[in-house]
UniProtKB/TrEMBL annotation, chain A:
Residues 36-48 have a biased composition (Polar residues). GO terms for cellular component: cytoplasmic exosome (RNase complex); nuclear exosome (RNase complex); nucleolus. It comes from Triangularia verruculosa. This is Ribosomal RNA-processing protein 43. It is found in: Cytoplasm; Nucleus, Nucleolus. The lineage of its organism: Eukaryota, Fungi, Dikarya, Ascomycota, Pezizomycotina.
UniProtKB/TrEMBL annotation, chain B:
GO terms for cellular component: cytoplasmic exosome (RNase complex); nuclear exosome (RNase complex); nucleolus. Keywords: Exosome, Nucleus, rRNA processing. The keyword Nucleus applies. It is found in: Nucleus. This is Exoribonuclease phosphorolytic domain-containing protein. InterPro entries: ExoRNase_PH_dom1 (IPR001247), ExoRNase_PH_dom2_sf (IPR036345), PNPase/RNase_PH_dom_sf (IPR027408), Ribosomal_Su5_D2-typ_SF (IPR020568), RNase_PH (IPR050080). GO terms for biological process: nuclear mRNA surveillance; poly(A)-dependent snoRNA 3'-end processing; rRNA catabolic process; rRNA processing; U4 snRNA 3'-end processing. It comes from the Eukaryota. It comes from Triangularia verruculosa. Gene3D superfamilies: GHMP Kinase, N-terminal domain. Residues 9-138 form the Exoribonuclease phosphorolytic domain. The keyword rRNA processing applies. Its main location: nucleus. Belongs to the RNase PH family.
Length: 358, 253
């Protein structure tokens, strides 16, 4: 550039930057400027061209991984995440502290459901893991242990999986009913009662679902994308037909008779970040510090916001049920704003439901 | 299954740390130490504000993903109440050691669990705030936190403040809310299945516990306390603990 000015000579060195350069140099004032336009007829927009309450459209593809029992690929803007669900068999003999099941195969009561829920947790039948791939965003370096973000995300996914109970633990049980031996007639009368006892069906193994998530590209709002991917992959999961072979003492699976995993409800998560007018404001004087709630923030916006809110809602059973609220890092979002945000999340729920396909 | 014992706290329990506190309530005992402002590591250094580092150590085993999540929640909340702008490029380190957790009598559950433990969060929060006060770290406000579980019994829902592990297990939904001393909502974490209306009720209950107005001198607060004791008065507890500590420290005068 210097040589250019030297050669032409005429234009004086100017201090005007192009918009991207300015956005990179001082991101906070830049975003503030675009959010508060000079004239009232201009709509406030973000750097990425969206309105504050506008989220990125979501695209969901399923069954793209051939080796997994269920898989999904979710895209929201430049955030792309792949999720694969793989079922592995866990015989009860390899569970430490296994407590034999005293229910029966056809129990459909609430107690059994609660027990199944506990089994999921106690025997770790759902194992989510999140990997933020090297290169999906500049801040993730190769060869480092999982970052705090990755660990936090997998805990959140784990908590939400158990908290919402989307997977029915009863479907992961593998039953076996011992056959009655009829040939030895002499002992029949003596051991009649015992035989009766032995005929009860028992759980011999469980399916463990390994839910692996890989961020291919990371551009903010990782939890919403990750949760949508988990949900889509679970809805896509088909477990092979399996039965206990008493002779070989192992579980055998049969090809071609896959059973679809039923997923209860459709909880959808919706996140936003709170952008404050004064980045380094005098603390304790928050009156007069304007704020904007940016729905579905991207990576550059997440870097500028401290307060974040995530709401998980499920409207699939008529009324709106809230399945989780996470709000931290600030005091702007109070009771009224959370209430209003649940309404915003309902809108997002409809978008995601549409993208899920049914 | 409400906890009858009042919360207990001791300040300055660790002689070498800048500030420390030990807090026990609802079966949880947590000790915290605070050091700061100290020199920050190069990668944590922020040109305009202090970096707040929170380390949570579980009662048994080493910290895993769950502790990382707890740390990130506490870190983002405490950064809001500490005057971090006063100490650019430095570090305030808070170490929380869980000493005791209530046992679940019903089952022999696993020692290490991956899901977020809601019931422990208020204890960690309160201990951290007490230790920060003990260390004399400038703060713009204090904060108090409480856990509320909604348990459905015989068709009706009851809210349990400071739930036991058994309550959390059978609860429909569990909530943790933290309020600053200016009555602002600092932290809200909820899990389970609930409606907006139920959340509103939980909000009211939690606010009752965390932000009860400072009792007046007339003695009428005793009557009020008996009327709706839905939990301890945490703000008053924080205040009286500090008052006691100051009084005993200035005893020589």
């Amino acid at each position: 550039m210097a040589t250019e000015t030297a050669s032409t000579g005429a234009p004086p060195p100017s201090l005007t930057f192009t918009r991207p350069v300015f956005a990179k140099l001082s991101p906070h004032p830049y975003l503030l400027r675009t959010l508060s336009p000079d004239s009232p007829d201009q709509q406030p927009t973000r750097n990425n061209g969206r309105a504050p309450h506008q989220s990125r459209p979501i695209q969901i593809n399923t069954s793209s991984l051939s080796q997994a029992h269920g898989s999904s690929l979710v895209r929201t803007g430049d955030t792309t995440v792949i999720c694969g669900v793989r079922g592995e068999l866990l015989p009860v003999t390899s569970i430490p502290q296994f407590r034999p099941h005293n229910g029966t195969l056809y129990d459909q009561d609430e107690d059994d459901e609660a027990r199944a829920r506990k089994e999921l947790k106690d025997y770790d039948l759902l194992v989510p893991n999140i990997e933020l791939a090297t290169g999906c965003a500049p801040q993730f370096l190769p060869g480092v242990p999982p970052t705090t973000l990755a660990q936090t995300l997998s805990t959140r996914v784990y908590s939400l999986l158990h908290g919402t109970g989307v997977v029915d633990g009863r479907e992961l049980r593998i039953w076996y009913t011992p056959e009655t031996k009829k040939e030895d007639g002499d002992d029949m009368e003596v051991e009649g009662e015992e035989e009766e006892e032995e005929q009860k069906p028992e759980v011999v193994a469980y399916w463990v679902l390994y839910i692996d998530l890989l961020f291919v590209s990371f551009d903010g709002n990782p939890f919403d994308a990750a949760w949508a991917a988990v949900l889509a992959a679970l809805r896509d999961t088909k477990l092979p037909f399996s039965r206990w072979d008493p002779d070989r003492e192992m579980v055998v699976c049969r090809k071609g008779q896959d059973r679809k995993l039923s997923v209860r409800g459709l909880p959808v998560s919706c996140s936003a970040a709170v952008f404050l007018e004064k980045e380094h404001a005098e603390v304790g004087k928050e009156e007069g510090n304007r704020h904007w709630i940016l729905l579905d923030p991207d990576r550059s916006e997440e870097g500028l916001c401290k307060e974040v809110i995530t709401v998980v809602v499920d409207c699939s059973e008529g009324g709106t049920r809230v399945r989780g609220i996470e709000k931290q890092g600030g005091t702007v979002v109070g009771r009224e704003l959370i209430r209003g945000f649940i309404g915003v999340a309902e809108g997002r729920w409809r978008e995601v439901k549409e993208a899920m396909g049914n | 299954m409400t906890v009858t014992a009042a919360p207990e706290a001791a300040l300055g329990v660790l002689p070498r740390a800048d500030g420390s506190a030990k807090y026990s309530y609802a079966g949880y005992t947590v000790t915290a130490s605070v050091n700061g402002p100290i020199e920050a590591q190069r990668r944590d250094e922020h040109p305009y504000e202090a970096h707040v580092d929170v380390i949570v150590r579980p009662a048994a085993g080493v910290g895993a993903t769950r502790e990382r999540h707890l740390e990130s929640i506490l870190q983002s909340s405490l950064t809001q109440i500490i005057l971090v702008k006063n100490f650019p490029r430095s570090l305030i380190q808070i170490v929380l050691q869980v000493e005791d957790t209530p046992e679940n009598d019903y089952v022999n559950t696993k020692l290490v669990q991956a899901s977020l433990d809601f019931a422990i969060m208020p204890a960690l929060f309160q201990t951290a705030v007490l230790a920060l006060l003990s260390a004399g770290v400038p703060m713009r406000a204090t904060a108090t936190a409480t856990a509320v579980a909604l348990v459905s019994q015989d068709g009706s829902k009851t809210s349990v403040v400071d739930p036991s592990p058994r309550d959390v297990e059978i609860a429909q939904s569990v909530h943790v809310l933290a309020f600053t001393s200016q009555d602002e909502l600092l932290l809200a974490e909820s899990e389970g299945d609930f409606t907006v209306k139920e959340w509103d009720e939980v909000y009211e209950t939690a606010k009752q516990v965390c932000c009860r107005p400072v009792p007046t001198k007339e003695g009428m607060e005793m009557v009020l306390d008996d009327e709706h004791t839905s939990g301890p008065d945490l703000r008053h507890f924080l205040r009286s603990t500090m008052e006691q500590k100051v009084a005993s420290d200035l005893h020589w005068k």
